[in-house]
């Protein structure tokens, strides 16, 4: 299923973003409007891509991470991982996502 979930503490939920919609693929239900959250993700990606071009990044922009209160949000390559920001290992989490280790079954 989701290989890295046992390795990274603090993961609350994992979502897949397709065709403008979020679908939960692992974890707890979250009390957020998923349509509103989808719109925020799209807007943040647009801003990030613009800033990456302005900063002349050599690699393509793939996503972002942020902390909102005690909630960690990582959005990379159409996957959204929500964590307890204080309990997660951010280095391990982001590296695992970038390596494609979050999702093994699709």
Please characterize this protein's 3D structure.
This protein has helices at 34-54, 90-98, and strands spanning 11-18, 21-27, 63-68, 71-76, 79-84. The model has no long low-confidence stretch (mean pLDDT 85). It has a five-stranded antiparallel sheet, with helices on both faces. It has 106 residues and is an alpha+beta fold. This is DUF2173 family protein. It comes from Saccharolobus solfataricus (strain ATCC 35092 / DSM 1617 / JCM 11322 / P2) (Sulfolobus solfataricus).
Fold blueprint:
Layout: E1 11-18, E2 21-27, H1 34-54, E3 63-68, E4 71-76, E5 79-84, H2 90-98
Antiparallel strand pairs: 1-2, 1-5, 3-4, 4-5
Reported for the largest beta sheet, the result is: 5 strands, antiparallel
Number of distinct beta strands? 5
Q: Could you say how many structural domains there are in total?
A: 1
What's the CATH class, please?
A: Alpha Beta
State the separation between the terminal residues, measured CA to CA. 8 Å
Rounded average pLDDT: 85
Strand content is 25-35%
Question: What's the name of the CATH homologous superfamily?
Answer: Dynein light chain 2a, cytoplasmic
Helix and strand content put the structural class at: alpha+beta
Helical content, roughly? 25-40%
Write the CATH fold name.
Answer: Beta-Lactamase
Number of contiguous helices: 2
The strand line-up of the biggest sheet is 2-1-5-4-3
- The general outline is globular
N-to-C series of helices and strands: EEHEEEH
Poorly predicted residue ranges: none
Radius of gyration: 13 Å
What is the name of the CATH architecture? 2-Layer Sandwich
């Amino acid at each position: 299923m989701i290989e890295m979930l046992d390795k990274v503490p603090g993961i609350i939920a994992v979502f897949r973003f397709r065709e403008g919609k979020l679908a939960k693929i692992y974890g707890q239900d979250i009390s957020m409007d998923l349509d509103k959250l989808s719109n925020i993700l799209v807007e943040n990606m647009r801003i990030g891509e613009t800033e990456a071009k302005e900063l002349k990044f050599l690699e393509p922009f793939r996503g972002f991470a942020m902390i909102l209160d005690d909630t960690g949000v990582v959005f990379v390559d159409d996957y959204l991982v929500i964590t307890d920001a204080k309990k997660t290992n951010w280095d391990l989490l982001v590296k695992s996502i970038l390596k494609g280790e979050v999702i093994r079954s699709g």
